[in-house]
């Protein structure tokens, strides 16, 4: 009797597993088909209604630093359109402003003339309530700034201690017209990313914005930046090295070596300290520097007074906004 039960139970488990696999396969197939049919690439913009367009645009522009780009209207709305889109029949024309909100989706702001709709904002738990979240590098500085502009902060920043969003800090704030929005920051990523997920949530912090300007093509300035780069790698005083690092490198600089990638000033600084500790008498010296627009090549050697060229190589710099954004390191093969 027990044997029969075990076999039967095993068959049930096998059948259940097979059904689960089919369900997952079917769901994944459905999702892929839907995406292919719809042709959706991503979120283009988020639309919000405001009572006064000019005041809302001033807030987005002067306080949050966003840029108004396009405007439509006022556009009269016919009765059929109002009925189809659940707009009060007595409401007037609509004016629309599209705002560039930095890296990510734009914000489309609507003002309805002689608006006969509800003037009350939905409560947070009401159906249809929503908010827009803006990523910031330093949430405490961002809160301090908004407070200085008279913006109402709803509570204090809170950092998630565990779970999928561990390491994420967030806080809500209120616009002058009463809409709820959010500041969010996770400079070291979120908890779920530590398990190496196949899919990672999109984040504006991971987007590299091109900031090349005419000043980045100045060969004299770029040569000076590279000379300061050498000073960084030879400087053993921590305070002086840190000051130079912040002067020469972008905060999210990447150093790409054949064996590893160092991301950010802290990781590069740590590598420099380790290199200096292992080779206390060694220094970097420049053999030659070549510039081409905002790209610079530095040929170098690394050695001491007794061993002048133990290691040699070439660094390739990508300079934007007068700082090193990318640094590619090529070390010559030793004979």
Automatic annotation (TrEMBL):
Domain of life per record: Bacteria
SUPFAM superfamilies in UniProt: Glyoxalase/Bleomycin resistance protein/Dihydroxybiphenyl dioxygenase, NTF2-like
Keywords noted in UniProt: Metal-binding
Location of the VOC domain: 42-186
UniProt keyword Metal-binding present: yes
Protein's name in the database: VOC domain-containing protein
Protein's organism: Flavobacterium ginsengiterrae
